[in-house]
Amino acid sequence: MSASLLNMLFFAFIFGTGVFFVVIAPSWGRARRGTQRIEKLNQLGEEAPAGDVSLGEDIRKRGLAKALAQAGLPVTPAQFMRLGALTGIASSSLLLSLIGSPLVAGFVGMGSILFYIRWLYGRRDQLKLAYEEALGKACEYMGTGAQRTGTIEGALAHSVDLVDPILREDFTELSGLISQNASIRNAFANIQARRQSQALTMMAETLIVWSSRGSTQSLKDVLTPLRLSIQKNAATHRKVDAELSGPKKTMIIVAIAPILFAVMMRLSSPAFARYYASLQGEILQIVAYSIAASGLFFGERVLGQVKKAVEIDQES
Questions:
Q1: Is 110 exposed, middle or buried (0-12, 13-18, 19+ CB in 10 A)?
Q2: Full-model pTM
Q3: Domain boundary among 231, 258, 275
Q4: Same domain for 14 and 103?
Q5: Least CB-packed of 36, 37, 66, 204 within 10 Å?
Q6: How many domains does the chain have?
Q7: Which burial class, exposed, middle or buried, applies to 140 when counting CB atoms under 10 A from its CB (0-12, 13-18, 19+)?
Q8: Are residues 89 and 227 in the same domain?
Q9: Which DSSP letter does residue 44 get?
């Protein structure tokens, strides 16, 4: 390997590392302040909803079918995988036509599939947050129904036609099961397993305790603090997501910048085109893209820890 190539790799690594820490720096202080809270959260990791775990662990534990359902995508796992394969082929073909490097085109094609799967899980997390925000509003409708009937069955029946469309199917199922004398726990069981929502679990446990222990409080008085708690948690999650969206977008731009740079250099000069199509040029590009992808991966892990720390800090 020539000295010039080593120098290019060295300076590419230094540049990428510098940009990475510039992006992470604004949020790093929060991560340090929340270290102890993160450790506490990790100890409770087994109790957390499955939607809060890492991508690899989520696939291993629950599979792609449930992720597609939670993301609201009306496709089967096979259809999703075919579309992912087509995405990889299309991106590889495009890069091959621009750079003329088959190894790099194949590498970028595989990376585009990972970005495609990452999009799926990002969509799932956004819909999960929207679901929990809708649950907070649903507690208000249930409270009105409870005030009229004093029963869980009446509260659910009143709210079915008023809740957000994202909840309607679940609330229709709940209302139907409870009207058929199913227990509260059994009525919520399938929906809890499907949604993996912390707010839904809070609602289920609250209604189970109220119905089984004969609380002296009215159902409406129980639903009011539940609504406030769910709305507070959802607002905290929404605020943290908004604060971290900027660094996330910046890291994605930094990750794809080497590809755009290589394309521009290739189109600007036939000499660069020949170099990037050579074995040496292909190795240089793959190393640069790998560094960028690694920076994105570890950066998102850090931001994930920051998010947990800030949420715990704001909820405590």
A1: exposed
A2: 0.69
A3: 231
A4: yes
A5: 36
A6: 2
A7: middle
A8: no
A9: T
Q: What is the DSSP letter of 272?
A: H
Per-residue pLDDT in tens (0 to 9) along the chain, 316 residues: 555 555 455 545 555 555 455 444 444 444 444 444 444 434 433 444 444 454 555 555 566 676 666 666 667 777 778 888 888 888 888 888 877 778 888 888 888 888 887 787 778 788 888 999 999 999 999 999 998 888 899 999 999 999 999 999 999 999 999 999 899 999 999 898 888 888 999 999 999 989 887 667 888 889 999 999 999 888 888 888 887 778 778 888 878 888 888 788 877 878 877 877 788 888 888 888 888 888 777 877 777 776 666 555 545 5
Question: Using N-to-C axis directions, what is the helix angle for 3-33 and 219-268, rounded to 10°?
Answer: 160
How far apart CA 70 and CA 125 sit, in angstroms, is 8
Residues 112 and 87 sit within 8 Å (Cβ to Cβ)? yes
Do residues 95 and 277 make contact, with C-beta atoms less than 8 angstroms apart?
A: no
**Are both 23 and 123 inside the same structural domain?**
yes
Kindly tell me the sign of the dihedral angle through the C-alpha atoms of 144, 148, 154, 158. Answer: negative
User: Is 78 within 8 Å of 64 (Cβ atoms)?
Assistant: no
Distance CA(311)–CA(316), nearest Å, equals 9
Q: At what angle do helices 198-213 and 219-268 cross, to 10 degrees?
A: 170
